[in-house]
Amino acid sequence: MTELQRDNKTDVAQGPYLRGERIQLRRPTPKDTNYVFHWERDDEVWRYDIHRPYSRTMGEFLPTFERNYIRGNGRQFWFIIEDENRIPIGTITYFNVDNRMGQAEIGLGLGDKTRWGQGYGPEAIRTLVRYIFTLPGIRRVYAETALANHPSRRAFAKAGFVEVGQIYDPRSTGELWVLLEIWKSHTV
């Protein structure tokens, strides 16, 4: 994919800068390390996902953040969600891009709990979905979330996703999860 480009002088990820009404989505930079480290360690932020990413120390986290968030691994594409004051409040990602099936998966993590319930999640989802549907051949975007994660399910519903059924936790815990989707033909 051409969306991740490098500035050879600074080695900072460059890519699309996506704007919503109140939020911006931008590629992560080293300045975001502290935010993401603390968000991933917050039990309340991750209460519905026992398989969350977790690093005990910043030293343990730094290589993962650099490799996955900043440089990108070519399979998962991360964005920092900024509010209207350009303050980082969470992350959003798309991954499992399947060009043959014309689909991609999306995941949201609103790390700043003071922003929960204020519409930032649905806006970030809508903004990223609009971008994903500009990628060649992508017709469907889907998400998987814990059945008990009502805030996530509401955020995706507000962004136009429809619940299509229950599935078992894709990481094999046996918990029930919900599959949600939106089709390009159903977006405005």
TrEMBL record:
Domain N-acetyltransferase: 23-188
PANTHER family, per the entry: FAMILY ACETYLTRANSFERASE, PUTATIVE (AFU_ORTHOLOGUE AFUA_7G00850)-RELATED, RIBOSOMAL-PROTEIN-SERINE ACETYLTRANSFERASE
Protein name per Swiss-Prot or TrEMBL: N-acetyltransferase domain-containing protein
Lineage, broadest ranks: Bacteria, Bacillati, Chloroflexota, Ktedonobacteria, Ktedonobacterales
